[in-house]
Amino acid sequence: MNTVTHKADTRGKANHGWLNSNHTFSFANYHNPERMNFGVLRVLNDDRVQGGMGFGTHPHDNMEIISIPLEGDLEHKDSIGNIKVIKEGDVQVMSAGTGVTHSEYNKNKDKEVKFLQIWIFPKVKNLKPRYDQVSIRDIKKDNEFYQVLSPNQDDQGVWINQDAWFHIGEFTKGNQDTYKIKKQGNGVYAFILEGEVEINNEKLSKRDGMGIQDTNSITVKATKNARILLMEVPMTR
User: Fold this and answer.
1) Tens digits of residue pLDDT in 221-230
2) Binding site membership: which residues?
3) Which of 82, 93, 207, 219 has most Cβ atoms within 10 angstroms of its Cβ?
4) Rounded distance, CA 27 to CA 14, Å?
5) Per-domain residue ranges for the chain?
6) Which residues fall in the annotated binding site for Fe cation?
């Protein structure tokens, strides 16, 4: 098992007033050659957007873009006809494919929206752009990981154009679960949303991240009440 740890306070930071963002991997003006990606996981941004503010219309292509609201509501509009509100408890993916433009704004004017913006390199390039959004409120489980994203259209959660699986776990102190790798050769990036956990005898706290590869499984134990996002991804593009 090989691991790399990214503590929360070592992330790149950008404060634009209306947007306060922390970058686990190199993004925009933050460039760290040792933090370009974890396999096909290219971007992991922890964003806070002020009330009524947001990202104006801009283009993407050949990238799987996942948004996971942690607090508040995010309004999405795109060039393929979608006008959606993504709420806490939802997961959204936009497969940019041959090209799409979109905007994302805080739906509310009186409170922040906090969300994760995640980019993954696609398995196949230049496909038709596609949008998918699901609620995970009714599928969540206590003290075990549940799937919110996969490569398969008929599976639980959203699906993307890549051999990747995302799981979320919500654990009370002292509980643990073992996650088994779905595809040989894949790695897992664990991102601690809340609380404190122990992975591979290392303690991780809120917004810490750990990349794990060369293993068939990992065990996550909550040393405090915790919420964790696991992102299993191919390690080669």
Assistant:
1) 999 999 999 9
2) 58, 60, 102, 104
3) 93
4) 10
5) 12-135, 145-233
6) 58, 60, 102, 104
